[in-house]
Design a protein that fits this description.
The protein has about 290 residues and is an alpha+beta fold. The chain has eight helices and 16 strands.
């Protein structure tokens, strides 16, 4: 399966860290009823829900966008050697899969000009840093790390008020700031004429997505504004970790209304491979067509 595709004259690589059944859908989506899940199993299985375990099939990955001028890595997964007591499946990972998949793109860590974190959850900041002689140092030494201002402020404050409860902030975000590698922007920031942020709040306080390309040949790197295509079918279906469940639904419906029945490619963070697709209407919601 190819993990490289193009959008207009941009090349995009998916760099996968892991892909496996992970969470029970009824726990993951607290307001999803057994009846509603059952009604949709015929199309969710086997791609989006593992028929054996009944769990959601989730991919953890970065998107690397190559423009004429920049290589931009969006979301940096879980990372290696990180103490994650509350996430046993991500605790002290020692996998070479992510680094091998990055190497397969033909790029090295030195080639990345920007790292963007759509938000600051544990599975989106990990490879920001790597362990070097007992210290956390930027994995991408030449990159500027693009953080949304209110997102960074929120998590910095949370860690200050409740130290040690957000270890991923301590080992994967604050060392970037200490090294002066951060570029703090608003979630409307335009990086260039083909790369701009769009605010997609709800999952976290200042979550952003990244729109790339030009009208008629564009894509949206969506981060965690959606986790499963059942949230396209039912845009108001919130995920358990959403900061503002009502807002996350408003955000999904607004963005999906805008891009449905267009050529805009939706590049999701966590859908199983190939993770990308387009939307059409489906009654009151939207149908995700894998592309
Ligand atoms: Zn995530």
């Amino acid at each position: 399966m190819s993990t490289t595709f193009t959008v207009g004259d941009l090349t995009i690589h998916r760099v996968v860290e892991s892909e496996a059944p992970l969470f029970d859908p009824l726990t993951f989506f607290p307001t999803l009823t057994r009846e509603r899940l059952d009604e949709n199993l015929s199309w969710l299985r086997p791609t989006f829900i593992d028929p054996v375990s009944g769990q959601l099939m989730l991919c953890i990955q970065s998107y690397v966008v190559r423009t004429k001028h920049h290589n931009i890595l969006i979301d940096s997964c879980v990372g290696n050697h990180k103490e994650r007591a509350n996430y046993p499946f991500w605790n002290q990972m020692e996998s070479d899969r992510y680094e091998r998949n990055l190497a397969a793109t033909g790029l090295t860590v030195d080639d990345i000009d920007y790292v963007m974190c759509t938000h600051m959850h544990v599975d989106h900041v990990g490879w920001n840093t790597r362990l070097d002689n007992g210290r956390w140092v930027p994995t991408f030494p030449k990159a500027k790390y693009v953080f949304a201002d209110r997102e960074l402020a929120f998590w910095t404050e949370k860690e200050r008020n409740d130290p040690g409860k957000q270890p991923w902030i301590v080992d994967s975000v604050l060392p970037i700031v200490a090294a002066g590698r951060q570029e703090v922007v608003t979630s409307h920031h335009e990086l260039s004429d083909v790369v701009r942020l769009i605010p997609t709040p709800g999952h976290t306080i200042d979550h952003f997505s990244v729109q790339i390309g030009k009208p008629g040949a564009d894509a949206i790197i969506a981060g965690d504004m959606i986790h499963s295509p059942i949230q396209a079918r039912y845009p108001e279906l919130a995920m358990r970790a959403d900061y503002d469940r009502q807002q996350s639904g408003v955000t999904r419906r607004a963005l999906f209304d805008r891009i449905c029945d267009t050529s805009t490619l939706l590049c999701t963070g966590h859908f199983p491979s190939p993770s990308t697709g387009r939307l059409t209407r489906w009654e009151d919601g939207f149908r995700f067509h894998t592309v």
